From TrEMBL:
InterPro entries: Methylgl_synth, Methylglyoxal_synth_AS, MGS-like_dom, MGS-like_dom_sf. The active site is at D59 (proton donor/acceptor). This is Methylglyoxal synthase. Residues 1-123 form the MGS-like domain. Keywords: Lyase. Gene3D superfamilies: Methylglyoxal synthase-like domain. It comes from Reichenbachiella agariperforans.
C-alpha cells in the first residue's frame, strides 16, 4: 500500500497526530509526502519519502504518481480557511484522484474512515 500524505500548514500537527495514532495500521505502508508535511512526519518519528514542498511543485509530483496509478490512497488535510498560491496544483491533484478513481480524503474524519475500512477499527 502506497499512501500520499499532505497537509496545509494549519493541519500539519493534526496530520502528524493522525499518522501516529494510526501507526499500527500503517506499519506495512509506504508513505510519500510533500516536503514540509514529510519533515513534520519525520520529526514525529515516521518514515516517509519527501517530495518538493507543495508550493514548489510537491502537489504536482504527487499528482503525477496518481496519474500513473502508483498510489493507492491520498490523505490531503486541507485548510479550508487558507489561501494558497499554488491552488491550481491542489485542484489538479484532487481532479486526477477523481479521473483515476484513487481514494482521496481531505479531512481527518474521512481519512479515518478510509483507514478503518482498509484495516479495520483498532479502538
Ligand atoms: O502545500 C501543500 C499542499 O498543497 C503542502 O506542502 P508542504 O507539505 O510542503 O507544506
Amino acid at each position: 500500500m502506497k499512501i500520499a500524505v499532505i497537509a496545509h500548514d494549519g493541519m500539519k500537527a493534526e496530520m502528524v497526530g493522525f499518522l501516529r495514532e494510526n501507526e499500527d495500521k500503517l506499519v506495512g505502508a509506504e508513505l510519500v509526502a510533500t516536503g514540509t508535511t514529510g519533515s513534520h512526519a519525520e520529526k514525529g518519528g515516521l518514515k516517509v519519502h519527501k517530495f518538493l514542498s507543495g508550493p514548489m511543485g510537491g502537489d504536482a509530483q504527487i499528482a503525477t504518481l496518481v496519474a500513473e496509478k502508483k498510489l493507492d490512497l491520498v490523505l490531503f488535510f486541507r485548510d479550508p480557511l487558507g489561501k494558497h498560491a499554488h491552488e491550481p496544483d491542489i485542484q489538479m491533484l484532487m481532479r486526477l484522484c477523481d479521473v483515476h478513481n484513487i481514494p482521496l480524503a481531505t479531512n481527518p474524519a474521512g481519512a479515518q474512515l478510509l483507514l478503518d475500512g482498509l484495516y479495520g477499527k483498532s479502538k
